[in-house]
Amino acid sequence: MGNNTINTNSNPFFLATQSIDVNNVTGDGTVYKVPADTLNNGAGWVTDTFTAVRAGVFEFTPIVSVLNLTTLHTQTTLTLVSPGGSITLFDGNLSTIRSPGNNATIPAIPWPVSLNTGDQVYFNLTVFNSTKTIGVGGGSTKITCRMLS
């Protein structure tokens, strides 16, 4: 896999992916900051946080794969956190759409965020109503960002 990113100060872009499964991170209501390895650190993404390299409107699209869901996990929330506040991108019952292997993917919702240079953005995942057995799937969890203006 090559480096599929464009990284200039006039057009920041990145695709960050999580390469391994991370297990037992949530399920009991614990807030989990979604991490990802990145193909291009120079675009402002480092492990779990994006730092704007310049001011503008950035569009983030997270795809988060949730592992080990059961019927007890009736509430899942994915939140984009920025200096302007928290934006709920998904709030629902993923257990109703889980696969036979008890996994589900939170639908991707592109979301524009106006940022100043140095502002930071990250994503929180919370799954409720059972024990801490939920994981986040490597290879299926991806976060993209592109600068709109």
Structural class: mainly beta
Q: Determine the number of helices (DSSP H or I, runs of at least 4 residues).
A: 0
**Termini Cα gap:** 29 Å
> What would you call the shape?
elongated
Instruction: List the secondary-structure elements in sequence, H or E.
Output: EEEEEEEEEEEEEE
Mean pLDDT: 86
Strand content: over 45%
The low-confidence parts are 1-8
Helix fraction bin: under 10%
> How many beta-strand elements?
14
Q: Taking Cα atoms only, what radius of gyration do you get, to the nearest Å?
A: 15 Å
Give the biggest beta sheet: 8 strands, antiparallel
Describe this structure in words.
With 149 residues, the chain is mainly β. The protein is 0% helix and 49% strand. It is built from no helices and 14 strands. The strands form 2 sheets. Strands 1, 2, 4, 7, 10, 11, 13 and 14 form an 8-stranded antiparallel β-sheet that branches. Strands 3, 5, 6, 8, 9 and 12 form a 6-stranded antiparallel β-sheet that branches. It is elongated. The N terminus is likely disordered.
